[in-house]
Amino acid sequence: MPIIIPQNLPAAETLVKENIFVMNEHQAIKQDIRPLQIAILNLMPTKVVTETQLLRVLSNFPVQIEIDLISTETYESKNAPEDHLKNFYKTFNQIKNKKYDGMIITGAPVEKLRFGDVIYWKELKEIMNYTKYNVTSTFHICWAAQAALYYHYGVHNYVVEDKIFGVFEHRVLNPRSELLRGFDDVFYLPHSRYSEMHRDEIEQIDEIEILSDSDEAGIFLVASKDGKYVFASGHAEYDPFTLKLEYERDIAKGLDIHVPKNYFKDDNPELDPIVRWRAHGSLLFTNWLNYFVYQKTPFDINEIK
């Protein structure tokens, strides 16, 4: 079934070329189906790239999905075209009286800052509080996972000396978890961050569980036992060249950055990347939509609580 997106959204052209079924709002309104309502709070500076990545991994679900793209009011991206934000994004004030079956909150390149020093921290706290009562399940990515674990449960994040950067081997810690249904015992996913969470803090909280980790990348996947919140420290949504572009950007800035591990063929940045996470990345989001959103959300969306 299709992803329902705003008419003329730039991501549509890319997705159609990949044979991903997308439908605009005018087409969808003719069908007598209640699509899942999913909000994406996009905190990444590369708005269009992130939109496309997330729509791609959401597209394999068999139920229609209608997307609202959300941006912060307290900070306006310097990289996203103003017209793009005006035409395709809503603010929290515009949607705060609406309920959603699911929400995704993306990462942001602010993990070296204390949470309270992030310009939009107050607004983000308001949004995370909103998800308690108005969203069936919220999926937090990378920095947003750390921010939400801190906000909801008081789990701290810690800056690391060397960037956790590359494609790392992970293990399944709870094979009975619905989020990891169909996963191999060992799988690979990308990470790109300067901070981490500590296992001992998470394990002290009865309401949440560590579902997957990595010897090199640390804690990857945490979820509340009721499925209300999912926290992923890595980037299951990344496309093949995202780490390459991030590496080249950091090199151009003169940063002391190492080649992303297990990413380029023979670890040579002159060669093409090897994609070894696409299937598991897509499966993770499909499982979230199925088991934590679709099967738990009420038929009447106004009954979400």
TrEMBL record:
It catalyses: L-homoserine + acetyl-CoA = O-acetyl-L-homoserine + CoA. The record marks S192 as: Important for substrate specificity. Substrate binds at K163, S192, R249. Pathway: Amino-acid biosynthesis; L-methionine biosynthesis via de novo pathway; O-acetyl-L-homoserine from L-homoserine: step 1/1. It comes from the Bacteria. It is found in: Cytoplasm. Transfers an acetyl group from acetyl-CoA to L-homoserine, forming acetyl-L-homoserine. This is Homoserine O-acetyltransferase. The lineage of its organism: Bacteria, Bacillati, Bacillota, Clostridia, Eubacteriales.
